[in-house]
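$ run holo --ligand "iron/sulfur cluster" --emit tokens
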Amino acid sequence: MQKNKIYIETYGCQMNLADTEIVLGILNSKGYNVTQDANDADVVLLNTCSIRENAEQRIYGRLGRFKNLKESKPNLVVGILGCMAERLRKDLVEKNSIVDLVVGPDEYRRLPELIDVAYNGDKGIGVKLSRTETYDDITPHREDGLQAWISVIRGCDKFCTFCVVPFTRGRERSRTLTSIVNEIKELSNRGFKEVTLLGQNVNSYLDNSKDFSDLLAACAEVDRSLRIRFTTSHPQDLSDKLLYTIAENSNICNYIHLPVQSGSDRILKLMNRTYTIDHYLNLLEKARKIIPGVSFSTDIISGFPTETYEDHVKTLDVLRLVRYDGAYMFKYSPREGTKAFRMEDDVNEETKSKRLQEIIDLQQQISYEINQELIGTEETVLVEGLSKKSDQFFAGRTDTNKVVIFPKNVIVEEGSYVKVKINRATQATLFGEFVSSVDVNDENLALIA
Ligand code: SAH
Ligand code: SF4
Ligand code: F3S
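-- output --
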């Protein structure tokens, strides 16, 4: 019997989602097929995340589930890919008898070979990091759709003291501009309407003399009806040139994810974030001048070592000052091997939780207020399909990444742009009425900005 059915689950950030598509691209070209049913699979792969302790705990929970499956199907190959594979390496196979395969983010080309090793009863291990691997020539396996991810730079050289990514993903290296632009051309031909350029710090992108602004401009030019998003920007490297590029290109979304992490300069220094709150706030002010209507989102860590109540209040102050559209908020989780791991994790669990809750409550209030202000305005929305909650409604998103729901009392196509008048809003969603279609290829172009 031929063994060729792969089942894969993906955890962690969008870079892992993009990597899963690369993995499937590699495996498809070797004759493997994807199955959606783990019970039907010959190979079960978990593409994992190490960013916080609970991300790893979740994977151990999943492995427990596959243990039963493997007992009833002894030839099943169980593999761990991604950041946990890179961080824990051989430990994963030694401590978990059911794991046969451990492959880190830079070794996916060897997967077919390593799966064969595992089929033959040995352990398949590939965890070398590379200074050059970008999977430039691999065609990712993507289902048809509207939205696609493209990794444009891999790795991270920032070494924030809390973060495992520089250890699990290795050094920064950029894909070529030409290969990225060609991929976007193909996606546009297939009817995709939105591409998100990914990297741990996209602002470090460099291909010969072409920087991230050049890349964005080149991507935006491919198809003006295709929205370009990007994530993540590090506040230290966000250049004026980048801000002008966003402002000048109507299809580059006016939305910047700019993690601040903490509102306290003392904590930022301990985190090795290399900017002060002053620098950060000035940057936002400048961005708001150059790109009218720009929205921001952020990441916050609460309870970093030595964080006092005063530091915490400074974080709340930054949220109030900036008024982010949204935020990803986390409790500090010590990660072995990082610099912060050697600092005492001295903010107790109860305090961390309490502070985190205050941050979440405040941010939800702000998101709610920002959305209330949109009532009565007309937003340009990319229609993504029917609402998940009711087939009587369409769902789409604004260029500032807000979900908009409107009644299906008109005929509009998935992937088209429409104007919707907003008449109700919650913290997470806008509700409105269809106003008109928008042809983004004519003079209405400016409307999507
Ligand atoms: N490259 C991106 C973020 C990658 S990780 C950036 O620099 O912003 C996503 C977020 O996870 C981080 O921004 C941070 O807020 C959070 N994070 C990273 N390590 C963490 C840790 N040890 N504990 C808690 N949160 C963490
Ligand atoms: Fe981690 Fe900092 Fe790199 Fe982001 S920039 S991935 S937080 S080390
Ligand atoms: Fe997690 Fe690795 Fe992404 S640690 S957040 S999957 S880079």
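-- notes --
Residues 156, 158-160, 163, 165-166, 200-201, 234 surround iron/sulfur cluster (ligand 2) (CB under 6 Å).
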